[in-house]
Design brief:
With 239 residues, the protein is an alpha/beta fold. The chain is 43% helix and 12% strand. It has a 4-stranded parallel beta sheet. It is globular and about 60 Å long. The mean pLDDT is 86.
Length: 239
């Protein structure tokens, strides 16, 4: 595996943290202008997300998944009233497409100090920068992967529109229980594609890893789809 792209610029102590604070503050200010000046934004259940970002126990990571409707969903969707979007310490780490955000040195530096992790789309879950995302989660940080896409995406944020943000309830996974279930369901499977590690911590072979991955992914996908349907009902009720 290759090295991590410009990882030194992503460190909190890089130049005393000043470049990160400047970029996060500037982007946060821009996002607030888009969300609250160019458009009208309402949020449902926003206090849940604010509480998880500000007040979750130390060392507990936060992983968020969202619908993807615009190239600037992140950071505009964090710009609602009361959210600490300009706080560099609390800001999310986001997985960003390497072929778009990391085309050259200048872009790579900008997105790195903005707490972005380059990811190769289509490269699978076992790539070096995914390990970096896992490192951030292990440290108890907030990480946001690439979003699910539903419907058409405009290339730029619109203006004079009503932006409705709906935050779901937090999901918690019982990993020991899910691990045992994955091991049980994979006992009769011996197939191997060679694209997954032969064995990982906890004794999960390739078949068990696939079971665990599919179980968690399906739960997230189902929850997100339910939230999308609720959002449609919520939007109609607000009209």
């Amino acid at each position: 595996m290759g090295g991590r792209t410009m990882e030194w610029a992503a460190r909190a102590n890089h130049l005393g943290g000043i470049p990160r604070k400047v970029v996060i503050t500037a982007i946060g200010t821009f996002a607030k202008a888009v969300a609250n000046l160019l458009n009208t934004t309402t949020v449902h259940n926003g206090d849940v997300l604010i509480r998880l970002v500000r007040s979750r126990p130390a060392g507990v990571p936060l992983l968020t998944v969202s619908n993807h409707m615009s190239t600037l969903d992140d950071p505009v969707m964090w710009a609602f009233k009361g959210f600490p979007i300009c706080d560099a310490k609390l800001a999310r780490w986001v997985l960003a497409a390497e072929d778009i955000c990391f085309k050259n040195t200048v872009l790579s530096y900008f997105f790195r100090i903005g707490k972005c992790i380059p990811i190769t789309r289509g490269g699978g879950i076992y790539q070096e920068h995914m390990n970096e995302a896992l490192d951030r989660l292990t440290e108890g940080a907030w990480v946001m992967p690439e979003n699910y896409a539903f419907g058409r995406r405009p290339p730029v944020p619109l203006w004079n529109q009503e932006i409705k943000i709906v935050v779901g309830e937090p999901m918690e996974f019982n990993l020991p229980e899910l691990r045992e279930m994955a091991l049980s369901q994979s006992r009769d499977s011996s197939s191997s594609s060679g694209q997954w590690p032969r064995n990982i911590l906890g004794g999960l072979n390739e078949a068990a890893q696939k079971c665990l991955y599919m179980t968690i992914s399906d739960q997230i996908r189902t929850t997100l789809e339910n939230l999308r349907n609720f959002s449609k009902s919520y939007a109609k009720a607000e009209q």
